[in-house]
Write a structure and sequence with these properties.
Helices cover about 35% and strands about 20% of the residues. The radius of gyration is 17 Å and the shape is globular. α4 runs parallel beside α5 and α4 crosses α10. By secondary structure, it is α/β, with parallel strands linked by helices. The model has no long low-confidence stretch (mean pLDDT about 95). The protein is built from ten helices and eight strands. An eight-stranded mixed β-sheet has the order 3-2-1-4-5-6-7-8, sandwiched between helices.
């Protein structure tokens, strides 16, 4: 693959970085990422992945844009109300970068369709807002040795996980949540959510995607990054692979 003059100009400010360069940029353009959820987390993830030249992006979300989304879901605007999120998100990121290929799936991810949708994507980004979907993605990623970047936000707090299931020692989401948590933990309708927190967590998820594609920096795999947006406190907590984890059975 040869970079065009236009691509060299577009990506010049990141290609000048020695850890990226033309070789890294080609890796980004050839990569395939599925983003689950085009909401508060998915919006910044998609914007940055498109801008930096991730060449093949899938988007799955079954919802339509609601007025209550607009304070944090920065892909959308008032004129987008009641439109399908996944289709609209694909159109918007193509406007950011016409280089990239985007597929959208206007449906709810479930046990019946996850393999058909996700099998061609080596990396999955979880921006979902419920634990049923998060565990579905986690279990599929474990089984199929995918890389999974998971984000979660509630009130003023956020968490980010990177799981690399190509590594047999990687923990998974079930290694951290020993019991099935209540979805009330992610219920922004009840608890509320700080707008900029979604941008912080989503941007870090995009950062983790690039690190994993290019194999640069220190992987977050084996840790959970915990963020409090009020104290501006970032800390990492180690997560170890649970012996006899349900996902290994």
């Amino acid at each position: 693959m040869k970079l065009s003059a236009k691509q060299i100009k577009r990506y010049s400010r990141q290609m000048v970085l020695k850890k990226i360069g033309p070789v890294g940029q080609k890796k980004l353009l050839n990569s395939k990422i599925l983003v689950v959820g085009a909401g508060g987390l998915g919006s910044p993830v998609l914007i940055y992945l498109a801008a930096l030249g991730v060449g093949n992006i899938g988007i799955i979300d079954h919802d339509k844009v609601d007025l209550s989304n607009l304070h944090r879901q920065i892909l959308f605007e008032t004129n987008d109300l009641k439109k399908q999120k996944s289709k609209l998100a694909s159109q918007k990121i193509k406007k950011i970068n016409s280089d990239i290929n985007v597929l959208y799936y206007q449906k709810k991810l479930n046990h019946n369709n996850i393999d058909k949708i996700a099998k061609k994507y080596p990396m999955l980004v979880d921006g979902s807002d419920n634990f049923e979907t998060k565990f579905l993605i986690n279990d599929y990623a474990v089984k199929n040795k995918k890389i999974l970047i998971t984000g979660a936000i509630n009130k003023f707090d956020g968490q980010i996980f990177t799981f690399n299931f190509q590594n047999s020692k990687s923990p998974c989401l079930r290694c951290f949540f020993q019991t099935y948590p209540s979805d009330q933990l992610l219920n922004c309708e009840v608890d509320g959510i700080f707008s900029t927190l979604a941008g912080i967590v989503g941007s870090i998820q995009a950062n983790e995607v690039v690190k994993e594609i290019l194999n640069i920096g220190n992987s977050l795999c084996g840790y959970m990054l915990i963020i409090n947006s009020l104290d501006l406190n970032f800390r990492k907590a180690r997560i170890t692979k649970k012996k006899n984890c349900i996902c290994d059975k």
